[in-house]
Hints:
Blueprint: E1 5-6, H1 12-18, E2 21-31, E3 34-43, E4 67-74, H2 76-86, H3 91-105, H4 111-115, E5 122-129, E6 140-147, H5 151-167, E7 171-174, E8 179-182, E9 188-196, E10 199-204
Antiparallel strand pairs: 1-2, 2-3, 4-5, 5-6, 6-10, 7-8, 8-9, 9-10
Amino acid sequence: MNQGLKSGIFRDSYCKSATPLKSIIIGLSPEENGLHLRAIANLSATQTPLALTQNQNKFASRYPSTTLGLLSGQDIAQNWTTLVQEGDNSPELKEMVNETRKAFRLINLDVDQDVFGWMDGEFAFGMVQSQQSSFPEVGLGAILMIETSKKDVAHATLERLEQLLMIQGLKVEKKTDATTWKAPTQELFLSYGWPDQTTLAMTVLIPF
């Protein structure tokens, strides 16, 4: 592992009861063009592993050169389903799943279908430097890209969230290529659009 910051090892008792992991070590180190993140996981042989699928990293080329770090993966929907199933063997995990479902029900969303259910393709999340950040003293923003075969479900979920935002006094501006969410004081905090029919792209604190 490169020299850098190391996290501690998660408590075995928690990891074995809450996930298929017995332990995990995460390392973070600076590189010439950003940060290098590496994780080593020790899986429990007695539990069903998460549905880990090697992604094609198709979104990496779409991120700007000012990207500080990029995390990518595949099929959030299937991994959520696996966590739900593992809850049958873990009281702690089952409680987490139930609390998550309750929280989203408060805003009339089904977390299994409306939130994670449509995230069935590749995803990527990156932190970027930008002079156009809503917080120029920080100069940071984020870009999230999610591939889906269920655009209609994703669109309906976003529409429902926007209704709630407007009730709370936030501003939703819809244009041809992007939708923008702004605070009452006009600060931008999120924008999103569809670069193609299967890809949702979101920017946080920076323009789309």
